Protein 1
Amino acid sequence: MNSGDLIRSVPLAPCRFDDGSVAMLPVADMLANSHRIVGVEVEVPTMLPALLRQLLLPITVHALGSPTTPEKWGHQFERGRFNSEERGHIEQYLAEYADRFDVLDTVRPFGQVADLRTEKGDTKGAALLVATAPSGNNVPLFAVRTEADRLRLPLDVAVRWMLHAHCWDPAAIKTGVVGDPKAKGGKTSGNPTGPLGQLGVVMPIGRTLYETLLLNTPIGVAKRLGVPQWARDPLGPQWEVRSPDGVLDLWTWQSRRIRLFVEHVDGEAVVERVIVAAGDRFAAGVPDWETHTAWRKDKPAKGSPATPLRPLRHVAGKAAWRGLDALLALESATSDSVQTSELLDQLAELEGAGAIEEGYPLLVETFGIVYGNQSAVIEDLVHDTISLPVAALRGSGRAYEAVVEAADQAERLVNAINRLSADLRRAVGTDPIPWDKGQRPGEQLLVTLDPVVRRLLAGVSADSGDEDKLSRGQLAWELMAYDAVFRCAEPLFALPSAAFIGRTVKSGSKEQRYSLGLAANSFRSTVNKILSRAAAERVRPDDEE
């Protein structure tokens, strides 16, 4: 058995089974056991979409095709595993393309370019692949390791980071290689980030790997499937500026030309040296049929009926539930600013067709990378997981209203407590905390509200069809939020006596009075309006209890 075979030999990732055990599995075994695998353990969260898009999803979809109708998708999903016919198709597919998945092949090594080399024959350390390791411009100030430290990666780990680089590699200058006509002085400039680095990645996640694969399979796209990279001609050092020919080409996009230099140390295949050079670039930016991102709608050009779409990027430190307006903005909705991902929009159709139950415990994971100077360095990784009620994907109804209202209430409470802080500071003669400096009390409130919102989302997912439970859940959320906002506001009232007297601030011809009493009354009134159920519950007469 070839030691570079990703299908049978080299494990793709550690897999966690439904019985709690963990095993290192190659691709074929992961697919065969996908109905029992409940988690794929990776070095960094952003590696999961890389493994799914670069290998597992395109193999499955290319071998079996895209489901043609919601009903057919629903039958597959309800079954919960590949049937014998599907397993046979996958086995046949893996046998047909067996030579394309060998990372040590001398002619077409998987994800690489054979004999990729520089004019001087030099290479770089394997840390160049690792997003969290110091290398080149990407050197964290307080990193434990330095670029001079040797990094020896086992072959399976090197493969995972190679796939990650194809998806997320930083932009800017890359190593110039022999055969690249655009290389000058040993360098190639103008490289964009990997394709996922240009998105705010949104992925629906199921209870098992099998369900996750289906949840991420678009329906009825046979005409725009295209082919994955391993079904194309072998790559050379030259690269193209082109548009993807379909979903499979997009998922397996080779944004870099890479070569792993494999050595054998104590009988183990390891990688210490690599080449990462320029790769293919999108001709017209991210295609608007990208499956794994939500979108921001731009204003159409004058005279154009089409609304331009831009990928909606994630913001570091911002919880995914704060972007529910985008995640639930279906294509059929009338939002002027945002639109959800194709796959979440598809789930709304599937729920409407009865192909997936409204109480299904759907998770949505978001992934992103924050790049620094000219996108040449990685500053932060963005990842979050939230429960998203399938019933809320309809874009209307009680479940939708409950989750959207809660997210909106949380944002309004943040604004209210920040306004309270500003008014109290003005009452004692100081300026409000600038929005981009220091820590405002709204940030602490968000930390406090975060688990409460997530608890509500999980509850709505489980009880979306029970009107009484939804109502009680909304009241419970408001009562906990009510306590949280006043608990966070309490330290703000520790002010000198001058705050009771207050002061008048002039702005042009207008005057505004600020004092502790005025600020407190305004704050309480605002909170009562935002959390009207909780406010009404707290003033009920004792005889109603």
Protein 2
Amino acid sequence: MAEIAVIGAGMGAMAASARLALAGHRVTVHERTGTHGGGVRRLARDGFGFDTGPGVLYLPAVYRDLFLKTGRRKLEKCVDLVPVDPAERHVFPDGTAATLPGASRAGVVRALDAAAGPGAGEAWTGLLDRGRRVWEAARRPLVEEPQPADTGALAADLYPAVPPPAGRGLLRRLRGPRPAAPPATVAGIGAGELGAYPALGTMLAQHALAYGFDPRHAPAGAAMLPYVQETFGGWYVRGGMRALADALYERCLERGVEFAFGAEVVAVRVGGDGRAAGVELAGGARADADTVLAGLPPARLAELLRAGGVPEAYEDGATPGAARAVPARMTVCLALRGGRDEDAVHRTVVHSPDAARELAWIFDGEGPDTAVAPTVTVLRPDDPAQRPDADHEAVTLTAVVPAGAWAAESGEAGEKAAEAFADRMVAAAGRAVPGLAERVLWREVRTPADTAAETGAPGGAVPGPALAGAGGAYLPAPNATAVPGLYAVGGWAHPGGGPAHAGMSGALVAGLIMEGADFRGSR
């Protein structure tokens, strides 16, 4: 039995803790804030409830496996998990809309043909089929197995090429040999393969942006994201996604995991043999450990290593893709008078009329934000637990924004700028919810600074899942660090961010600790 110290009580850290405690290890979680769940939070006020982090769960099999293997009560006995259907609605800049059913490829084809023109559904299906090929090639090494020491295969572009129609005779000779194509990007395949249907390119770009990826540069392999979403479906947890975090916390307690809240770790201690030996807490207390798990952004983990006297050499190569900007989220929680309309859907994406300006602001720092019309995701769960009664509704709006947005504008000026951006989010959401502004009883605006306070992420950045391609720029830090006995877990580590990927991170770290070099990944 080993002593294991865990830094942070996020979803990945708790997933690893439950598995390790079941195996007989003594696990203590040191959490800087006063609660568990990391970025999976809930705002409750006046009978209204809002998810302030993820609002939909994809790949729930990760948590089904976790609950099945760590206790007698299965996931569905711990939370009320329901499929999201329709899967989503898209409202395009020209005013047209497409409502996509869940678990029905034929229904999606019909909806896209009606919204974007005949043939649009077939074009989208073709793209998803290529996304499927990426997923099948990358699923094990990218998600279900520890990140390989040699990431060359994952650094390569896995998106299958779509050759242009071959010429014949003189035309072929005049063309000559085709030059090598540049690496494909999300925007590139949107323009090239979906160019006849601009709405589809807009949808594809939004799938990347929703995870914090710049579609202008994200590898074409990101086409696996809409494939996974449409194939495996989205799921909602009654009472909000926070209920999943609560259930995981309770499972950890059942397994004997100890939690210390308000316990900030200020250094990772390393013994004379170079192996992790425990953590130091604010105030000077020490917690010895045989193994340390860190659910932290790479930069923060590096700070704790330096504070523990670890040479810079230990940090080399620990943060693949660290130079890539990771954006944050802006969230607006709306308490509305009037009940939810019958044709409302759980998730609606209202696309920006000027995506180029929006991307330049988020990823290139070209402002000001006052010129940006944001892409807004509208969450309208049909959940009595999230509203005081049937005559009211809780709606959550989110938009991708630069990490640290408005932080440079201190005090009242920063608050006014954020509120003005929230006004534009509400105005955009009004395209999906008619009369929205007039229904607002009150609202609460949550900026990246709020996320930073809760998760410790720099600028409130929210990590996305791992992607293959682009020379490895979209691969997160590996779980096994350069310091023996120190492991990275959670959304900032392999296989990346989001509830499912963070949960898988916990499974991988637990497997590495329990099985060592023989561990071949989750099954």
